Predict the structure of Glucanase.
Amino acid sequence: MFNKVALLSFTFLAVVLGQQVGTLTAEVHPSLTVSKCSAGGSCTAENKSVVLDSNWRWLHDAKGSTNCYTGNTFDKSLCGTPEACTTNCALEGAEYAKTYGITTSGDALTLKFVTGANVGSRVYLLDDDNNYKIFNLKNQEFTFDVDVSKLPCGLNGALYFVEMEKDGGKASYTTNKAGAKYGTGYCDSQCPHDIKFINGKANTLGWTGSPNDSNSGTGQYGACCAEMDIWEANSISSAYTPHTCSVYGGPYACEGTECGDGDNRYGGVCDKDGCDFNSYRQGDTSFYGPGKTIDTTKKITVVTQFITTDGTANGDLKEIRRIYVQNGKVVENSYSTYPTLAKYNSITEEYCSAQKTLFGDTNSFADRGGLAAMGDSYENGMVLVMSIWDDHAVNMLWLNSAYPLDKPETDPGVARGTCSRDSGKPEDVEKNSPDATVIYSNIKYGPIGSTYSSTGGSPTNAPPTSTTTASGATQTKYGQCGGTGWTGPTVCAAGSTCKEVSPPYYSQCQ
């Protein structure tokens, strides 16, 4: 659909001897069970694991234990040039619980915010010890449970997908000796410059320590790729957001204007704003939060459906739909209270255009291909990311407060949550909420309607259905109403109609 960039031709990728792997700490990936579901709601457990992102790891002299990176600065004696740093330095194995506050139990992953000197974390779902699990969610749904009750203003428990390479770039770049086993190859739509190694080479050129983050800095290159934010949330606000790029195929090492930095935000290869759906930002201030319709003091089941134009994985992506399940009750996503947006409670091209127009935002999402391009990225394959982080750029105000700061809170789209504009400063959050945690659990994926139920129960449960076919029986909203082998009711309850979602296999009351 779009011009594909040949990453291997980029001059940043000059071949040198490789980014090394340390031998001082064994790398043992915490196990995590996920479930693959089939039409009808039968699910099979898959024994997987998670791996810590390489940016968090100890980077040291491959021949000893001298730090290659201390605080937010590279050691010039080991990293005087990108080639030297790539050759001299090794990524070490991680002590997940002790150093990073990362633990798993069965199908649950817990990420603690502050553990000793460590702040935040980012992990990826592995298919095996050397490869990330790759997802294509076109004509599929993705479901998980989440506990955000211990995430205050300024924090983000984020679960999302990015277009990384399956092996972390190990095959594409001979300088990368670590690969997915050590969490290499990260990229996202913000084209982050804080990645220490991009496409197998140290990002030391122009590296400058951050003025307000003692652990981070920025280099000359950024790591760009498409991103689907399934869940960015704390106990106050949540959003789901697709971000598209005009480049495909894994991390693109951007430089200069193509990174979209600063005043050139909309001139880069990726859409940094995305097309977001935040219920509070859409005007419904009573939907999400403590004690609200979706009560963030309790566990939440989050369902995201990726609807295509022809009901198959071959069609273009046309809609991203959100459903919640809590306390055994299926809850459809909120609708906007703004008149020009009132008919929307999911992400479509029409919604994105109307929202950008009302809020006065640039539609860089459409400029980079919109939903169809997001679907193309899923066809290429995307990696599941789970993280907890604070925001050294704008204090997470874009998620849970009023933002941007130069606009009145009463302007449409500015208010995004109840947090103060003075909240979210990393130094405050790290000091006052070090024990903040997020728990992701019960991850499932499969055909539309296969991963959740109104009873919130076991992996074998189907979507909410009536069990009788007697005359006059009707199906509840979001229940199955047709499809191959279906013998249940085909008439939907008032306010919904039976629609083919995955023809001919599955129809749903909507």
About this structure: Residues 1-17, 456-471 have pLDDT under 50 and may be disordered.
